[in-house]
Input
Amino acid sequence: MRFKDRRVVVMGGSRGIGLAIAKGFAAEGAAVAICARGAEGLEAARKAIGALGGAVFAAPCDLADAAQIAAFIPEAAGALGGMDVLVNNASGFGMTDDETGWDASLRVDIMAIVRASQAAVAFLQADEGGSIINIASISGMRASIRSGPYAAAKAAVINYTASQAAKLARQNIRVNAISPGAIEFPGGVWDKRKHENPKLYETTLASIPFGRLGTAEEIADVALFLASPAARWITGQNIVVDGGQLLS
Output
C-alpha cells in the first residue's frame, strides 16, 4: 500500500494505459480521479477502479478544451481532498500530416499537458512532494514518416518535461516522462492495427527483441515507481519502456 492516503489524478483514464495506471494506484491504496470524453467508458472505468477498494472520482472532460480542463482539475482535487500525483496520459493520435493531424496533436498531446499541469501546481505543493508524470512515446525520439505530427508532439512532451522539472523543483514537485513503445490492449491502436494493418503489426513485432508488444500494466508499473518515494531523487527524466524496440 505505497500510496495509502495519496491522491492521484489521471487525465484520460478510462481505457488502456490510463486505466491501467489508475487501477495500479488504486490497488496500492490511493484515491483516484479520472476523466475522459466518453460517458459509457468512463463509468465502466469508475466501477473497475472502485472495485479495488479506494475512493474514485470520475467526470467527463474533453482534453482538447481548455475550459473543461480548467474546471476538472480543481473539481477532482476537491473530490479527493487534494492532489499528490498528476498523470497526463491522453493523446489525440494526430497521425496525418495535415491540419487535422497537427490540430489533434497540438491541442491534446501538448496543450492538454500544459494546461492540466499549470492548473494542478497549486494542489501539488505538498510536504511529501508532488509528482507529475507525462506519457510520451518512443515516436518522439526518432523521425517518423508515418506519423509526423504525433512524433513531433511527443518530442515536445519530452522536452517540456525537462523544462517543467527545472521550473517546479523549488516547489517540491518532480516531473518525469514515460515513453512507451508499441503497447497492445483491447481496442487500442495496436490491437486495431493487428487486424487492419497486419503487415505493419508484424513488422513492428519483429523489431522488438523480446518478441512481443508491451502491456498497459507494464507502463503502469513504471508510473507507480516514478510517483513513489523510491524515485524521490528522480526528476526531469524520460524513461523508455519498449522491450528494446529502439535498439533495432
